[in-house]
Amino acid sequence: MRMHKKVRDERITQLNNQLQSEAFILVSTLVMLSIFIKANLMNQPVSEYMTELIVLIVSAFYLAIRGSFAGYRTTSNPKTRKKVWSAVIIGISIVISIINGVKNYSMYGEKYTGIFDGHFLAVLGITFLSSLVFTAVMIGVIFSIEEYGQKRLEKKLDDDED
Does the keyword Transmembrane apply (predicted)? Predict the structure, then answer.
């Protein structure tokens, strides 16, 4: 018995992938906006937006880890890769520090003498350093998985050639 494979035009497959990618970005942006509004504008506790936070974190990790296991490289040039990801890590840490600083100052501002109060600056510094280390470790884990996936992909391609 012969099985018939339906041949798909690669352009249609690429268009479908692009549409799904754009939908993922749109949904992720809306979830981030929802978290931001609930956390900062409505001053709701974390329990009120925990579901959105979990969905956002799980989907980001799934995308990064799944792509890495498949052998997808985020950048092709290793020199550019280090520069780009170093900037991303620092940028994420700065954003986290700013958000935490604004929230901290709005909640405990009366205890500080101003935004240049030593305790407030210490909070910002500790937040920045801890988020820098955490983000760097997470990116390092993803890069390790990416290397493993790349080797696995190369081995599979070499086996297919033989």
Answer: yes
Residue of 74, 37, 77, 75 lying closest to 53 (CA atoms)? 37
Q: What are phi and psi of 78, to 5 degrees?
A: -60, -35
pLDDT, one tens digit per residue, over 7-54 is 677 888 888 888 988 998 999 999 999 999 998 889 898 889 889 989
Neighbours of 25 (CB within 10 A): 10
